[in-house]
Amino acid sequence: MSIENLGFETINLGHGSGGELTRDLLDKIIFKTFSNPYLDQKHDGSIVQIDGKMAISTDSFVITPIFFKGGNIGELAVHGTVNDVAMCGAIPKYLSLAFIVEEGMQVSEFVKVVESIKKAADESGVLIITGDTKVVERGKGDKIFINTTGFGAMHPKANISVQNIKEGDAILVNGFIAQHGMAIMSEREGLEFESTIESDSTNLNYLVNDLLDEFGDKIKLFRDPTRGGLGTVLHELANDVSVGVDLREIDIPLEKQVAAACEMLGLDPMYVANEGVFLTVVDASIKDEVLALMQNDTKGKNAAIIGEITLEHPNKVVMQSLIGGKRIVSPLVGEQLPRIC
Amino acid sequence: MSIENLGFETINLGHGSGGELTRDLLDKIIFKTFSNPYLDQKHDGSIVQIDGKMAISTDSFVITPIFFKGGNIGELAVHGTVNDVAMCGAIPKYLSLAFIVEEGMQVSEFVKVVESIKKAADESGVLIITGDTKVVERGKGDKIFINTTGFGAMHPKANISVQNIKEGDAILVNGFIAQHGMAIMSEREGLEFESTIESDSTNLNYLVNDLLDEFGDKIKLFRDPTRGGLGTVLHELANDVSVGVDLREIDIPLEKQVAAACEMLGLDPMYVANEGVFLTVVDASIKDEVLALMQNDTKGKNAAIIGEITLEHPNKVVMQSLIGGKRIVSPLVGEQLPRIC
């Protein structure tokens, strides 16, 4: 989009007034970018036809910096919610989109974010159907916060429920962990590594859909370890269902460079945020087929079976370490990396 | 809710980490307050059964101050979205709820907001089914921003569409305008009036539902003039449909005290925000019955027929003033009152 003819270079309070300037911002940037029959009604809301079960998920994105290696807050806001809907066993279809912009934000940056949202939404197969734009005074926000709420139709074969989890079930992840968190961290600290660490921000809905097509109710759980990382999600799982989790450190996909960066900064990759990783718990009988399907997909080529469900130590996540010992993966207390998503 | 045993008095960055502190905040305040079968799944999203057409609307609330005469940001976040769904001709059923909290917010204030949300949701007949909580550093937010996204089933008799609007249709509002904006303004400026001006923040869904039950597709439009006020919404209507609007100033419900406050501050009540007002465009044949139904309801007791649709001056809103002259109601440019919702 050319921003030269917009007539404004920064977002100001008037763009959040609900009056002419708001309409100007919407018409010239938002409606123009996302135009579709739902949004074009320009009503207070949108009307969609749904039949059956629907998954709904919401997330606000407050990441800083808003542009980072491998992505920006716009695409993250799409991927994050698309993935949360997919984790319910649903096929994402619609997103709402709400901005809180800090007065003085450059329109060039705003447009870049909006265009990223459009691209990520197209790639994920979702439509932006309704939205909202607010502007707060300088110093009362931080450039831009984005909320997306996602809606998807449940996959007909999905029967996702932690209640179905039993001893011996296999735990898999689709790829390298801790990439997103370390990309943001290196950006913030201005760290240079041998090669650039990029965020893994991506949409996981197609791979999840393929898994459900193929394996249906033998898949017991999908969960994406974003904030809090893999360790926190596994710990929650163990406690929600009162089962134990056995992990093998050697099998957890972790890039050397990310491992080195974590060590340097004193961070445990088990608690570092991901934006393109999911874990799944599946019946042991299909684990190798699930692994093969995942490895055959660009979003799962580094997939691995990382552990099993056990009843030997309920509520505990136990990791067999690289050097052979065992340690308990405790829950994350406090904050490892603020504003990571 | 007693906040003495929570173990924390302020919200800190750890409450947004996704780890133990986040779980603590959710379990002790959020899940405890809103407990219902959807939310209790504690999954990434919620699964609901829908059949047919559904209206979806999203809004972020950034109002300051967060507590004001007649309401607070919590109930506003419920009413605002419930009303937007109702304006589509739908019956609101579910809300998502996402917080962006500034580090250092008092837990006592947070709990007060959460409890208001619960009360307003109960009164409006909607369930909070999924949510999100983020925390930003001190100085990067302003106490609390709230996003709600609402879902409602379309009323079976609704056929809301600006395309159905024709010459002679009557325009009604349900009550006094400009109350919300002037309540916030007097709060900010520390102004004292003879009696307190209170926000009109309330849910309009039951009255809208009753109107649809009774008059079905003879109702052509509902719209709530929040940001930008009645003038902006009427101006948008005129331009979206290429019709003219004739208004009679004498018929527009405006409390004396609010009128005086507007005059004192140099504000035009036509552009001041409302949070409990809606306008409706109806077939001329039913206008008196519609008025009677509205006046019979606590949310519409000050309802009035304020004007008509005309083809004489398309795209223009023309007001017959109190002293008999006519003036054009131009669109609001810029910002009259920032952060009013």
Automatic annotation (TrEMBL), chains A, B:
Residues 166-313 form the PurM-like C-terminal domain. This is Hydrogenase expression/formation protein HypE. Belongs to the HypE family. Residues 44-154 form the PurM-like N-terminal domain. One of its GO terms (biological process) is protein maturation. Gene3D superfamilies: PurM-like C-terminal domain, PurM-like, N-terminal domain. Signal peptide: none annotated. The lineage of its organism: Bacteria, Pseudomonadati, Bacteroidota, Flavobacteriia, Flavobacteriales. It comes from Lutibacter oricola. Transmembrane segments: none annotated. SUPFAM superfamilies: PurM C-terminal domain-like, PurM N-terminal domain-like. It comes from the Bacteria. Pfam families: AIRS, AIRS_C.
